[in-house]
Amino acid sequence: NDVEEMVGSVLHYGLGGDCQMMLAMQDPDNYKAVLDNMSDTDKATFKKEADNVERFIALSDKQQGDLYRGISFNSDYSDKKAMKSTLDALKEGKEISMGHIASWSTERGIAADYADGALNAEFGSGEDYSIVYHVGSNKSAVSLRGINPQGECISSKDAKYKVNSVNYQYDDDYECHRYFVELEEI
């Protein structure tokens, strides 16, 4: 029963559309708008779901090899506090945490697609930021290949990383700030 419950929560996280609600339970500062629209009953449900996903991560074999994570921001539409703290952390030697369960990919191209999310949204105003993180030696993320057909990996809210290098360039063609960040899991 425990395994079925954990796998069910992972499915809800990845495929059921409940990801944002679970992340809100782990990272309330950056998901305030989501929390404001949830009942106390929903909060209890999604906290339990997030806890189940964390148990699944803790008990599963860790993914070997390179992992990539892509995120994007638009200065007019993204949460200003989350955007500022993320960009401020993109400095060599800084320690960072995603602050919640985080999705990763073994494919750089998939992460780059997620990193270009703000570009794909075609907001039409504001500055676009595209960030791809790379971890060469994963210690904590687990593969969802048997559950999620896209081959997604997830890491715990407790995973911590050190920024080893940041490659920045401004993309004139897409009018976008692009970052490629080498991380070391600590």
What does this structure look like?
The chain has helices at residues 2-14, 19-26, 32-36, 40-59, 80-88, 108-115, 117-121, and strands at residues 67-74, 95-96, 102-104, 128-135, 142-143, 153-155, 161-171, 176-185. The radius of gyration is 16 Å and the shape is globular. The protein is built from seven helices and eight strands. The strands form two sheets. A five-stranded mixed beta sheet has the order 1-4-8-7-2. It has a three-stranded antiparallel beta sheet with strand order 3-6-5, with no helix packed on it. The model has no long low-confidence stretch (mean pLDDT 91). Helix 1 crosses helix 4. The chain is 37% helix and 25% strand. The chain has 186 residues and is of the alpha+beta class.
Count of strand segments: 8
Q: What ranges have pLDDT less than 50 throughout 5 or more consecutive residues?
A: none
- Sum up the overall morphology in one term: globular
Report the helical percentage.
25-40%
Category by helix and strand content: alpha+beta
Query: What percentage of the residues does DSSP assign to strands (E)?
Result: 25-35%
Number of helices: 7
Quote the average pLDDT.
91
Q: In angstroms, what separates the terminal alpha carbons?
A: 33 Å
Major sheet: arrangement of strands: 1-4-8-7-2
The major pleated sheet works out as: 5 strands, mixed
Give the H and E element order.
HHHHEHEEHHEEEEE
CA radius of gyration is 16 Å
Properties at a glance:
186 residues, three-stranded antiparallel beta sheet, 8 strands
Secondary structure elements and their pairing?
Blueprint lengths: L1 H13 L4 H8 L5 H5 L3 H20 L7 E8 L5 H9 L6 E2 L5 E3 L3 H8 L1 H5 L6 E8 L6 E2 L9 E3 L5 E11 L4 E10 L1
Parallel strand pairs: 4-8
Antiparallel strand pairs: 1-4, 2-7, 3-6, 5-6, 7-8
Helix pairs in contact: 1-4, 2-4
